[in-house]
Design brief:
heterodimer, A: mainly alpha, two-stranded antiparallel sheet, B: mainly alpha, 12 helices, 1% strand, globular
Chain lengths: 420, 279
């Protein structure tokens, strides 16, 4: 055989054999239907103090050890003491545990050792100090903390008079500890001066990004009569698509890389937090929102228009500009309608209070509850329904209920005035 | 053309060219690792390749500038052997970094997470630099071609694992697997025999094909990273379609061609001196 022909034959057969071998490997070994194995991670079993922690807690709390083993932290060599060792400012939190100084519940200060930017973004959000303030008011805040977290009004006084939420006073401390405070602990005040609890969304000890991206995680707290975000999401087209196709979502795709290929319809995180398309990721959940919808009267946020541009850049991955503008314009009309209804209700209640026909103690009269729910429940529901695309919440749980409440308020007010 | 090339006096510059190109390889690999590991704030061992890369570049520059100096030569060899260790250790770290103690699929271990085929590049570049400096004549040509063949094999494995994420769709993601494998086999073929002129042309054609595939892949990767995103996001270039991945084929094609450059002839005196030193 001539030498050149021999070369061509060898190259051809060699290439075919190797490529075939690669495909057999893919099909039978490393493809989706391939083999499974167990490979020890670097951190869990092999090293010093971490080994001692794991061995002991394996007997006492096997669940947390398993979660740690399953975490990216474990694979990357992050050890128990990397998170549980006290950092500056945590001296008073530290405890001796088998001759090792540690803190039992790490705070954002510990997470900031590696995730500083994320922690800074989180602390600037309503999820942090403001969330905690909305339960107990200014009681546990220093003047510096109030100023730093924008919790002072124009006169330099704590917002809402620094008072605890009227519902907190209504149900009492014990009930609040197992209800309001459970969710609002996302912004809890820690003894090291930090605010927040990262593990409310990134459940310990897996700290999975995939789990934090799922709507169900947000739905732990964002549900119920006053902010039924998970219900609204599930009613929306986005939620319906998610429910039908959630297996195809790539929940654990690397941060910063997400596109419509990974998330063909948005989850909560896609719009509010994730890096998506041209938009950078953030842990400040209000950074892409024009409106603040939760107060009595909804208002445009500082930098609201800029925030909306950021959000629109995400919407543009799937929707046309005209569709987005049309929907947002309609939502704004309904937000204004809820504001008008709240102002009408407030005028009726204020009139009764000014004429001495209502007491001064919050939530002490049936009419207080009607008005409270007019903005706190129905008003919010209609607004959230309008911006997130849930028709039922705009009307039947929102505007309709507001109008019904206004009729009831007016009738009761007329009745009270007639009696006096 | 080959004969004309052989008549040119490349031989005396070959070591300089090869080592210089390896310095450039260390530099670019270092930049790539810098971008990738910056995403994790350079956690622990992730600093190793970043400390090593400039060290390797300096060692190569020192070797090129102070060639006759024995101390510099020993230092160069030590640094390159460390490079081999860095490459093997990096592969181990990437593999264990993707692992958990739970039973999980090889798909998760090898295809998702940190690219396990990437760190071995340090070992490859170091080995090539060591062979370039240590051997002379046809023995060097042969060893360099084997190393380029292994490099192509590594590039094929990297492309295989990367494109397996997509389930090899679209179909053109198979192209680098085929051309890279062809280059691997042809490098080994050329390493184990003195190819005639036609065989050398075939070999160079295969390298040119891989050069084009690398450039084409680079274009596809950039377009894929930009698709529907309106802007450049670094993480996507690192984790989605790695920017430097396809250029590895161009790099190896160039190396394959450089390896074929004429070697300096072993004169009778050189052979005699070499024998004297050995016996």
């Amino acid at each position: 055989m001539p030498k050149t022909r021999r070369m061509v034959t060898i190259l051809g057969i060699g290439t075919i054999l190797i490529v075939a071998l690669l495909f057999l490997t893919y099909h039978f070994v490393i493809g989706p239907k391939g083999l499974s194995t167990s490979l020890p991670t670097l951190s869990a079993a092999t090293q010093g103090e971490n080994k001692a922690c794991v061995e002991c807690h394996q007997k006492d709390n096997p669940g947390i050890v398993q979660q740690y083993h399953d975490s990216k932290h474990s694979g990357r060599g992050v050890q128990c003491l990397d998170c549980h060792r006290p950092v500056t400012g945590q001296e008073t939190l530290a405890k001796e545990h088998y001759k090792v100084s540690l803190i039992s519940a790490p705070t954002p200060k510990n997470c900031a050792q590696c995730h500083e930017k994320v922690v800074n973004e989180f602390e600037a959000s309503n999820h942090a100090a403001k969330s905690w303030y909305s339960v107990e008011g200014a009681k546990n805040f220093t003047p510096e903390e109030l100023a730093k977290n924008h919790l002072l009004d124009a006169k330099g006084q704590p917002i809402n008079g620094g008072n605890a939420n009227p519902v907190f006073n209504l149900i009492g401390k014990d009930a609040s500890a197992q209800s309001c405070e459970v969710c609002h602990a996302i912004g809890q005040k820690n003894r090291d001066g930090s605010f927040g609890d990262c593990t409310k969304c990134h459940l310990r000890h897996t700290f999975e990004v995939a789990q934090a991206r799922k709507p169900e995680t947000c739905g732990q707290c964002h549900l119920g009569p006053d902010h039924p975000h998970i219900e609204i999401y599930n009613e929306s087209a986005h939620g319906a698509y998610y429910q039908a196709n959630k297996e195809s979502y790539k929940m654990d795709a690397p941060s910063g890389t997400l596109t419509v290929k990974d998330f063909p319809a948005p989850t909560c995180a896609t719009c509010h937090m994730s890096a998506f398309g041209s938009v950078k990721g953030t842990h400040n959940v209000g950074e892409r929102l024009k409106w603040s919808l939760q107060p009595e009267i909804a208002k445009v946020r500082e930098n609201g228009d800029k925030n909306r541009e950021t959000l629109n850049a995400i919407c543009l991955n799937c929707h046309t500009s005209s569709f987005i503008k049309d929907n947002q314009a309609k939502a704004e009309m309904n937000i204004n309608l809820t504001n008008q209804n709240v102002m009408k209700g407030k005028a009726i209640v204020d009139d009764l209070r000014n004429t001495g026909l209502l007491g001064t103690k919050p939530l002490s009269d049936p009419l207080d509850f009607v008005y409270f729910e007019l903005w706190h429940h129905e008003g919010r529901r209609a607004r959230y329904g309008a911006v997130m695309g849930a028709a039922d919440y705009v009307n039947w749980h929102g505007i309709y209920e507001q109008n019904k409440a206004l009729v009831e308020l007016q009738a009761k007010a007329d009745e009270l005035k007639a009696k006096h | 053309m080959i004969n004309r090339l052989n008549r040119l006096t490349f031989a005396s510059y070959k070591t300089f060219l090869l080592l210089g190109f390896m310095g450039l390889n260390f530099l670019l690999t270092g930049v790539d690792v810098l971008m990738a590991h910056s995403q994790n704030d350079f956690f622990r061992w992730e600093l190793i390749p970043l400390i090593y890369s400039p060290l390797a570049v300096l060692a190569i520059i020192a070797q090129l500038v102070f060639k006759p100096n024995d101390a510099v030569k020993r230092m160069f060899q030590t640094v390159m052997w460390i490079g081999v260790i860095v490459g093997v250790a990096g592969t181990f770290f990437h593999l264990t970094g993707n692992a958990t103690s739970s039973r999980e699929s090889l798909h998760h271990l090898l295809i998702e997470g940190s690219p396990i085929a990437a760190p071995i590049a340090f070992a490859g570049i170091s080995s090539y630099a060591l062979a370039s400096q240590h051997y002379q004549g046809t023995a060097r040509r042969s060893k360099l071609l084997i190393l380029v063949g292994l490099g192509f094999l590594g590039a094929v494995v990297a492309a295989f694992l990367d494109h397996a994420r997509l389930g090899f769709e679209p179909i053109y993601t198979l192209i680098p697997l085929v051309t890279g494998t062809l280059a691997t086999v042809s490098c080994f073929y050329m390493a184990y025999g003195q190819g005639n002129q036609t065989e050398t042309y075939i070999y160079l054609s295969i390298l040119t094909l891989n050069m084009l595939v690398g450039l084409l892949g680079f274009g596809f990767h950039v377009l894929g990273d930009l698709a529907g995103t309106q802007t450049i996001i670094l993480a996507r270039f690192l984790y989605r379609n790695p920017l430097l991945g396809p250029l590895l084929f161009c790099n190896l094609a160039l190396l394959g061609a450089l390896s074929l450059l004429p070697e300096s002839a072993m004169t009778f005196d050189k052979v005699r001196n070499a024998r004297r030193m050995n016996f």
